[in-house]
Structure formats: structure tokens, C-alpha cells
Amino acid sequence: MRWTPALFVAAAFLGGSANPLSNPESDTVFRVDDVTSSQHVFTDTFEREHPTGSVPGKWGAQGGLLSSNFVKDGILYHQFAHPAFSDYRLRVTSPEICDPTVKQYSGYLDISDTRHLFFWFFEARKNPESAPLMMWLNGGPGCSSTTGLLFENGPCTITSPNTTVRNPHSWTNVANMIFLDEPIGTGYSYASDHSKVNTLSDLAVDVYAFLQLFVSGFPQYAAQPFHLAAESWGGHYGPHIASYVHKMNKRRVYAPFPGQKHVNLASVILANGLTEPATQFESIPEYMCDLAPYPPFEKDGATCRALRVEMPVCKRMIESCYRFESRATCGPATAYCWVRIENAAGLSKRNPYDLRIPCKDPSGVCYEEVNWITEWMNQPDVKRALGVDHSPVDKFVSCNMTTNMGFYMQGQAMHNSAALLPELIKADIRLLAFAGDTDGVCNHIGVENWMARLEHKHHEDFADAPLLPFITEITGEVGGKVRTAGGPGAGNVSFVQIFDGGHMAPHDQPEATLPTPGYPYPDMRRAQSVRHYARTSQAHGADDLGVLREDESVEEVLRRQLLEKDRECDRLQIQIQSLQAQLAQRPPLEKVQALEKEYTNLELLLQGTQRENERCMAELERGKVREKMLERELEKLAGANWQSNLELGAPASASGFHARASGLANSGKSSGPAASEKTPTDKASVEATKAYVEQMRLMILGMEQRMQTREDKLAKHIERAEAEGARFEEVRRQALATTQ
């Protein structure tokens, strides 16, 4: 994920894990050099599961699909076509890299002859026939989901540019996983005709087409619950895709299209996501300056003061985008808020994705593993194993900034994607949002706040629900806190705070984010059994008091709770004293109110002056239009070269007009045969022309005088506006200095 001071540049990653050659419990290292040609053909098992005609390239029928085998660039693919998606094809091959102990498929959804979406699928390590189906999406927009696969929750983890190792905490332990590179231009997804997808609605349509072809071509995975998981900018992807899937599932009931399959959507999982920008951006000053466990800035420093001043303007602009959702309103909100608010995280020397550690690569994304992933994915043998096309963009990049910029220029970043979730919750589609508490990009406070404000059928229960600690299944240690509503365990709506987890929480805290068997959420079933806890974190400097469970004696429970309450009281007392000291340094309330009132009056006066300036400019433009009309009349009278024909110079001043009028009057007295030969009729015509020209002259003189008056008036207004603007800025600086 890339968040640099450059305008609109933002991105996000998620990743994962490791890989053995044979024994799934071993730590065997798998190298690129081990890739063999046997990985580029389909096994007999695949052929038995997906029968086609005996001749490669010959289409055959398969459960309502058309299916065939064909060879491209020396790689054997199996291809599916759906009758309802005439322009779409799903072609797959079978790699044996990363985790060769499980069945894999990779390839492309060919949206057309020129547009192609890349994916990589892994069966669950245990009980794949009953394991749920999950799709993982990285954000960006434009960041490859294989970055997430190799850095966070996939079956193998990158350890060098040429090596991966098995990830024991992979989400494929419990789920059949699809890692999809979307939209077009992401990872190895490409468009040979340079077409683009730069809106969330278009992205959702392509992902739905992929799901239809996938569940039709692989029905053994379709019967299980489908969970959609997305990270970072995926906080926008997830709601839009899930909403479209849900809409098409409902349409299937009363107006199905041929061959349409029900996508068994069970839940939406948002990992450190950007979903409701107004609330999340509002939390940035509070988190970065006051509540972050590893605060990157001094709370009274220049950066924090600037954040607090800029935040109200940013929020109003985002709310305007919510009310009038268009590029005209959302684009400016994106530009202002990203530069003034979000990019502040990059001003610290800390890693904005994980405030616990320094940024190792300030020019990149602060993680050297991302560069390793790029090198590994560009290895020729890896590309061949995955069936990567020789596309126009033949080089893999973890984040495509051109794709990224397309979404930002459309203002998509500031859309309220959370507004799509209540309908899904109403249909009993579960929602989980988790966030690491050391993430400075999409902080956990903003995520919890928008979930608490979201109106849905479990809203009151969620608002009243306590934030309880939960313990991990493997180690029994506290992994974070959970807030749920709508049912036991994780409920229907859940928020999870991951302790000491950054933007890529599955990388930082793999045990706390690991789904449980048959239940693709972090383990929260034991959250209710935890009475009290002490967080063992350098952030809070707490002592390890352990976790109190129900089997402990009442005396032990009370003793430890009393110790914690005493410490909490001491901490609150210190905070109160600090706040009282700050309050004593503030100016009197009357002075602040007076400055605020003067600030408001000056702002209104400036707005009025600006409107008057606009009116004067409009009047000036109308004068120019009238001048053009007069010039056209003169062209009709004396031809296109009317100035020379009438012996007129460029129209300038009144004296010029008098001189030209005198010259025109004297033209009737010219000597020569032509003048003497004029008939009375000709003389009458000349006199009429002179009269008309004189009339035009007087009209132009009057217009010039009015325009001069308008220009003088406009100059005075501009001078007054500049003076008021200078005064406005001076009062603003005084107000800022006073509030500090």
C-alpha cells in the first residue's frame, strides 16, 4: 500500500505465508528453480472433474457451461464459457508452487478479447469439501491480492526475492481461498486495448461475472458459504461487490438469467478498511495526536495543530460528497482531505502502516518484502507456472499507480460505502470489521466509530454492547477486544480491535486474525469468558497480570480487578491534572467567542464581495458581447474590412472616434473625377451612411463610458476584497494563536 505526499496517491496491501514441498507440517524451503514442466499441465483428476471433448480446443457441454481445453504459449488451459455472459471466459491452469500439498488453480477471467482478470485459487488444507469459500481482495486501488497472499494470510510467505516458506497461520487452513487481482490493471490483470475500470460499480459487475463462472465451473466449492474479505481500500470494494451479489441473488428468484447460480454470500469481512470516510477522517487528529499507542506526533506540535484546523473543512467537503455524490463534489473532497489530513501520517519517520516500527523504505511502502514479492512474481518460471499471459504490460507491480489514480480522479475514495451495508445485515449477511490498533492509515477508532453510527436492525444492541477482550485459540493470550451484536459468538455485526497489529494485521498478529475451523472469523467464542485482562504492550507499559477466567477464585478475581482499578484511577487523575493545566492556559471564553464572531462576519463579508465581483465580471462580459454585436453590424454595413473601408483605426478612445468621424465627413469633399461625378442619389446615400455611422459612433462612445465606469467600480471592489481578505487572514491567525 502506498500513501505518499503526492496528490491522490494511495494504495494498500495484504499478504501472507509459506510453503513446503511435501510434508505440510515441515519448514521445507521452496525455490523458483524447483518449478518443473509438470506444473504446466492438468492432472488426470482435473480431467475427471471437468470432462470435455477429446480434442483440445473442442467445446463440450458441462452442467450448462461450455468447456474446452486449449494450449496458449505452451501452457494447457481449461476454459469455461457461461451462456449468460457471452463476452466472458474463465481459463485455468494448475500450478504447483507456493503450497504444492493442496490443489491449486490460476488463470484469467477473460472479460473480452482484450481485458483479463488474473486469479490464484488454493483449496483448504483440511476438509476442502466442507470448508467455506473465501475471496481475498487487496485495496489500493490497483494493488495486487498476491501481495496479500505472500505477505499476510496466504499459504506461503516470501522470505527473499527467490524463496517462499510455508505459512502455518494461513487462512487456507480452514477455507478454500481465491486471490483475485481486480480491477483491470492490477497485478497481472490487464487490458491490451488500454481500457480502464475506474468506478466501484463497474468493478462489482466484473467480480460478479467471475464468481458466476467460478461456481459454475467448480460446483464442489459453490455449496459452501461464501465469505468476501477485503483490506484497506477494499473497505469500498467489499460493500459494493456484496451489494451487487445480493441484488443479483434476489433477482434470480423472480427473473433469473440462463444458467445463473446462487452465490451463497454469508459474510463481508473488512480488514483495516476505508469504508465511511467522513467518520474515519474525523478520527485521524484524535488518533494520531492523542490516542495512538505509539503516537507519531506531539499532541501540541505544529502537525497536530494543523490537523485540528483542517479537519472541519475536510469533513464538510466529504459530507457534501455524500449528499451530492458526483465527481464534482467528491473529487475536491479527495484532493483536500488526502493532502491536508491523510498524508500527515507520512510526515513521521515511523511506518504509517505500523507505528511501532520505523519506515525501512520511505520512497516505497516501508516493507522490503513488497520488493521481494515483485521480484518473485516476475520470475519467468513463476509466471509460466501461473499461466501468466505475455500481456502488453508484462511486468508485475505490486501497486499500479495509473489504476490507482483513475479511481481517485473519479472521486470514488470519498463515497459512503457503509450505506450499502444495512440492507445486507437485514438479510442476515454477517459483517465483521477488524483493525490493528497501531495502524496510522485506517485507524481502529475511526472503524469502530462508523460501525457504532451505522443504522441497521442490530444498531441499538451494537451501541450498547461492551468492548470485551478475547483470547486466541492457539496460545490462550489476549489478542484484542471485540464488540458484537445480533447473536452469540461473533454475532451478525462485529468489530474487532487487534492489539499491536498494523494495517496488515494478519502479518503482524497471525494468530489473533486466524479464522477458526468452519468459522472464518477470528476466534471470539471465548470472549464472554474473559472477565478482565491486562494488555502486555510497550504502548501502555502494563504489567502482565494474565487473563482471568471463570475457573479462578473470586478472591483472585477481586484482587486483580482492584489493582487494575487503582491503576486506572491514577491514570485518570494524571489526565485530569493535565487537562486542567491546559484549560488554565486558554484565553477567556468571551475573547474566543468575540474572535469567532468576527471571523464569521468577515467570512460572510468576503463571500458577499466575491459575489459582487462575479456580478461585475458578468456585466463586463455582457459589454464585450455587445461590442461584438456592433462590430458585426459594421461588417454588414461596410464589409469585413470595415475599419479600413471607413478609414477607422482600432477602436480605442473618444478622441479617436471624433477623428474618424471627421475624416468620414470630409470624405464627401474629396477632389477628383469620382467625386464630381456623383449623382444626387449617390450623395443622399452617402449622407445616410454618414448619419448611420455617426449614430454608431455615439453608441460606441456611450458603451465605452459605461464600460469604463464598470471597470473603475470593479477595480474598487477588487481592492476592497483584497483588503478584507488580508484582514480575514490576520484574524484567522490570531484565532489560531489564541486557541493554541
From TrEMBL:
GO terms for cellular component: fungal-type vacuole
Gene Ontology MF annotations? serine-type carboxypeptidase activity
Matching entries from InterPro entries are given as: AB_hydrolase_fold (IPR029058), Peptidase_S10 (IPR001563), Ser_caboxypep_his_AS (IPR033124)
Provide this UniProt record's keywords sorted from A to Z.
Answer: Carboxypeptidase, Coiled coil, Glycoprotein, Hydrolase, Protease, Signal
Gene Ontology biological process: proteolysis
The answer to whether keyword Transmembrane helix applies is no
Q: Which PROSITE patterns match?
A: CARBOXYPEPT_SER_HIS (PS00560)
- Coiled-coil residue windows: 555-619
In residue numbers, the region (Disordered) covers: 661-686
Instruction: Point out the signal peptide segment.
Output: 1-18
What's this protein's family per the entry? Answer: Belongs to the peptidase S10 family.
Protein name, please?
A: Transporter
